[in-house]
Specification:
By secondary structure, this protein is α/β, with parallel strands linked by helices. The chain folds into five domains: 2-112, Rossmann fold, CATH 3.40.50; 128-193, no CATH class; 198-321, CobE/GbiG C-terminal domain (Nucleotidyltransferase, domain 5); 327-433, Tetrapyrrole methylase, N-terminal domain (Cobalt-precorrin-4 Transmethylase, domain 1, 3-Layer(aba) Sandwich), CATH 3.40.1010; 436-558, Methyltransferase, Cobalt-precorrin-4 Transmethylase, Domain 2. 29% of the residues lie in helices and 25% in strands. Strands 2-1-3-4-5-6 form a six-stranded mixed sheet, sandwiched between helices. Strands 7-11-10-8-9 form a five-stranded mixed sheet, covered by helices on one side. Helix 6 (210-224) crosses helix 7 (244-253) and helix 16 runs parallel beside helix 17. The chain binds S-adenosyl-L-homocysteine (SAH). The site of S-adenosyl-L-homocysteine has 26 residues, from helix 15, strand 25 and strand 27.
Length: 568
């Protein structure tokens, strides 16, 4: 439990925000500060004080009993700028708590134990390369100073602190955040985000040296005043997909090489078609057509390389500016425990300006969101609508995260969302630890050989189809994990399915029943096909049935990797 103590009105507000973010983990102590602090110190593993550090030191001093027993204490200043790990940095978990509090309140964690250098989450976490006075603008952002946002291009950003706003906001302060693909020399207290807006089309004759290709690309960008970090891809014709100079140029720029068929390129209307590529590869334009194929505005028409030796140019290039695209991240949160949420999922949650999900999953990660993230939550059932909302928000050009438990592609939101999405948005999938995998790890190694998951919910699937699949799995001797095994009013499907499996497997076949894997009330039971009590199963459960070779060994469920037990 985390005790929360404050003395002033603004401290009380910040404390209330913390309590709202972590309703199950926090207890707010009211009343005179000394008594509140003493009680919290005795009763809680950790304490967060919205008080001056000196005051907290004086309050804590008479109570200190030793590193091993004292709670971790974090203190947050009146302005909510810093979360200071004051006491019990490691043992009391105050360092980690200071970071977590910092994330919720947008405060900078201050950690003084030598081994925990802090990295402030700042401009470099907004999803695009950044240059200029990164430290200066980050500081202004964290300090709550006005920072003007000058976005020439509408590429989607995550939720920004409320002090970062429209031009003019920072006019007096001078701190400025720009979003542009034009080259510029950033002034002091000015930082530039580089969105992936540029596509460079390239053509090259056989054997064109990489220096000639890359030199032409760089010179074309420079002459047009365009920024290389904004290049998202090189594009060319299929016939050149292995041309070393082009492949190497993409590698050195750190971008993917995208290729199109000659027919696809021949369809693109370009300002500068010519006969040479038509004869060589079957399209009147390579560089311009490849750059334009995905849409956008031609900002550098076809240019040819210049060779010092006066021989014919071997490379061509053209640059297109793509319109900004919204971004939909489909993020699996894992089965429940915070440390089974992947770092990539965490980054994607912080990359979003809009979060869409089932309310109970939103609660699971609310504290990870950037302040200001718009949350669109709905109750069970509204799946199609959630998917549509998420896609519609991305189409508006926003950065959207659509969340699901486990993996968001498994009996979850990814399919309805992608069925809805067009090629006008970017989609990023982040895999999650599924319930079947989490349960498998708890049970032992039940999935050591071929296995399937079968959902027993007949909401989206007629029972005949489900039954046919269960029969097939039974005959094929697959390990089976049942999702959605049983709910109120849907109780005969699980016994029926187990009976179908029992036609092909011994009554003693091991069965694992895992409820709320990795959540606080997790339970794990190992039983058998004959002994399983269906009443012990509900919608928070997965049931994993072994194949004919699965054994219970030392209380663990083990499916051998082959069908011969070696040495057993
Ligand atoms: N996308 C999820 C599955 C959603 S379907 C995944 O990849 O795991 C919902 C079903 O998943 C539940 O009825 C239950 O059978 C199972 N489930 C989800 N989380 C679980 C957990 N932590 N423990 C046990 N079963 C779980």
């Amino acid at each position: 439990m985390i005790g929360v103590i404050s003395a002033t009105e603004s401290g009380g507000r910040a404390g209330a925000r913390l309590a709202a973010a972590w309703p199950a983990r926090t207890r707010v102590y009211e009343g005179p500060v000394r008594e509140a602090f003493e009680r919290a110190f005795r009763e809680c593993e950790q304490v967060v004080c919205f008080l001056a550090a000196g005051a907290v030191v004086r309050l804590a001093a008479p109570l200190l009993a030793g590193k091993g027993v004292d709670p971790g204490v974090v203190c947050v200043d009146e302005g909510g700028r810093f979360a200071v790990a004051l006491l019990g940095g490691h043992g009391g978990g105050a360092n980690a708590l200071a970071r977590d509090v910092g994330e919720v309140l947008g405060a900078e964690p201050v950690i003084t134990t030598a081994t925990d250098a802090v990295s402030v989450p700042g401009l470099d976490t907004l999803g695009f390369p950044v240059e200029g006075d990164v430290a200066g603008v980050t500081r202004a952002m964290l300090d709550g100073e006005p920072v003007a946002l000058e976005a020439e291009l509408a590429w989607p950003l995550p939720a920004l602190p409320s002090n970062v706003g429209a031009p003019g906001a920072g006019a007096s302060a001078g701190a400025q955040l720009r979003v542009t693909d034009r080259t510029l020399e950033p002034a002091l207290r000015e930082a530039v985000l580089r969105p992936p807006s540029l596509v460079v089309g390239v053509g090259a004759s056989k054997g064109a040296p990489v220096d000639e290709v890359l030199g032409l690309v760089r010179e074309s960008l420079r002459a047009a005043g365009l920024s290389a970090p904004c290049v998202r891809e090189l594009a060319t014709v299929d016939a050149k997909r292995d041309e070393p100079g082009i492949v190497e140029a993409a590698g050195r720029l750190g971008v993917p090489l995208v290729t199109y068929t000659a027919e696809e390129l021949a369809d693109v209307v370009v300002p500068n078609p010519s006969d040479a590529p038509l004869a060589a590869v079957g399209t009147p334009s390579v560089a311009e057509a490849a750059a334009l194929r995905g849409g956008g505005e031609l900002v550098v028409p076809k240019r040819k390389s210049e060779r010092a030796d006066g021989r014919p140019a071997m490379a061509t290039c053209a640059v297109v500016r793509r319109p900004a695209r919204g971004r939909l991240a489909v993020v699996g949160l894992g089965p429940g425990a915070r440390d089974l949420l992947t770092p990539r999922a965490r980054d994607e949650l912080r990359r979003a300006a809009v979060l869409v999900g089932l309310d109970q999953y939103v609660d699971q990660i609310r504290d990870l969101l950037r302040p200001g993230t718009r949350v669109i939550e709905s109750g069970l059932g509204a799946e199609e609508e959630r998917a549509r909302t998420a896609v519609a928000e991305a189409r508006e050009g926003r950065a959207v995260a659509l969340i699901g438990s486990g993996d968001a592609g498994v009996y979850a939101m990814a399919s309805p969302a992608l069925a809805e999405a067009g090629d006008d948005i970017d989609v990023v999938g982040v895999p999650g630890v599924t319930a079947a995998l989490a349960a498998g790890a708890l049970l032992g190694a039940p999935l050591g050989h071929d296995h399937v998951s079968i959902s027993l919910s007949d909401l989206h699937t007629p029972w005949e189809v489900i039954e046919r699949r269960v029969r097939a799995a039974a005959e094929a001797d697959l390990v089976v994990t049942f999702y959605n095994p049983r709910s109120r009013g849907r109780d005969w499907q699980l016994p029926k399915s187990l009976a179908l499996l029992a036609e092909h497997r011994a009554a003693s076949t091991p069965v694992g029943v895992v409820r709320n894997a990795s959540r606080p009330d997790e339970s794990v039971r190992l039983t058998t096909l004959a002994a399983l009590d269906p009443d012990s199963v509900d919608m928070m459960t997965v049931v994993t049935v072994g194949n004919t070779a699965t054994r219970a060994i030392a209380g663990r469920m083990v499916t051998p990797r082959g069908y011969r037990w070696q040495g057993v």
